[in-house]
Amino acid sequence: MNSSINIRSFIFSAIVIFVSVVCIFFYETLKTETANSIRMCVYVIVPSLYGSMILACLITKSRFHIIMGKIFSPLSRYVFKLTPELFSIFILSNISGYPVGAKLLQNKEIRITDDEYNRCMCFCFSSGPAFIIATVALKLYNSVYTGLIIFISVFFSNIILAFISGIGKPVPVSSHERANVRLDSRIITESINNASSGMMQMCIMIIAFAVFKIIIIETGISRILSFTIAEYTSLSLNDSRSFILSLLEISNITGFEQNNFNNIPVVAFLLSAGGICTFMQVIAISENRINALKFFIYRIIGAFISYFTCSIIIRFFFSVLIVSASSFQIHSSQYSIFPSVILLIMTILLISQKAIDKSDLK
Fold first, then answer.
1. In terms of pLDDT, which residue wins out, 237 or 361?
2. What is the pLDDT of residues 47-81, one digit of tens each?
């Protein structure tokens, strides 16, 4: 017992020393990457996900998700073997963004067993249409249609996973509970606070992973892996590097070559997989309740389903994508003040919530 603890302590100490050395010797590179991560959060992540996260929290806290679920009751119970309530969470998580599914399933308003929880975590996981279209599709392909195809591919893979995981499961008992929708200032405030907390956690993780990005770049690990992937696949060396970095942290997906439509299925694969940073966020939110191995296996399977689904769709709509990319124009300024204002409001809300919690304890 003591020897295992000593080994863990030694490994942890070695990692801390190694990371500290990297931070010292590669300070300038780390500073640049950290600044890039902050800009990514302020100008991309927050604007594309914050609103949908607030809406998802508001729907569940107001119990409106129960009404949503009743609409799909026959489909959810007999096809996917999910209660209508959990099916509404499935829909919300796929249109809201990565950590939303995990946060909603942890909500006290949701009635769920441990088995149902581990099952739902495997397919209540998606980057959402806002992130896919605004962040990935418009930046890489200048096409909304491309974003829709990628989103459909990712969503379809989760539908397949939900169906497969329900095989052999009993049909849930129909619930006749009346949903009393509640909507007041407290629920609205709590929804905003929860969304702000999730958004801040996500941004902090993205910024923190800039250190790991520097480590695999400066140690040559990414170069070796990139050469290997480029040699055995159709990806270029630059796209192979972006592939590796995206597996580490998904926002690096914007480093792919622009207007290379042959890479769209690979992008769909990565967005469906999510990356190590997202995995860690989900595991942390679940408070060790999740079966990590099962979650990982299902996400890899889902990523391949997204890849092949996207490949099939593109064969039929390739010419349409080319035309849409050439005709669509974006008029925006990278120096918009609104994302920064949103981030400031989030910070103020979090600080005020901490003060409220402390006063309640007293």
1. 237
2. 877 888 888 888 888 877 777 777 888 888 898 99
The whole-angstrom distance between residue 5's C-alpha and the CA centroid of its chain comes to 34
First-to-last CA distance in the chain? 41
pLDDT in the model for residue 179: 63
Residues 86 and 120: beta-carbon distance below 8 Å: yes
Dig out the tokens for 362 from the structure.
């007293």
Between these two residues, 14 and 88, which has the higher pLDDT value? 88
Distance of CA 77 to the CA centre of its chain: 26
Q: Residue 134 in contact with residue 101, Cβ under 8 Å? A: no
CA angle 307, 241, 29 (to 5 degrees): 140
C-alpha distance from residue 298 to each of 30, 123, 237, 273 (Å): 34, 8, 28, 9
| Cβ contacts of 194 within 8 Å, gap of 6 or more | 57, 61, 103
Q: What is the pTM of this model?
A: 0.82
331-340 b/e (C-beta count within 10 Å ≥ 16 → b): eeeeeeeebe
What gap in Å lies between CA 54 and CA 192, rounded to an integer? 5
Q: Which of 88, 79, 101 is nearest to 171 (CA)?
A: 79
Can you read off the two tokens belonging to residue 19?
A: 């990371």
pLDDT in tens, 174-188: 766 666 777 778 888
CA distance 100 to 291: 18
Angle between helices 114-121 and 84-96 (to 10 degrees): 30
What are the two backbone dihedrals, phi and then psi, of residue 336, each rounded to the nearest 5 degrees? -60, 140
Instruction: Tell me how far apart the alpha carbons of residues 294 and 318 are, in angstroms, rounded to a whole number.
Output: 35
Q: Give 274's Cβ-side CA count (13 Å radius).
A: 30
Whether the Cβ atoms of residue 162 and residue 90 lie closer than 8 Å to each other = yes
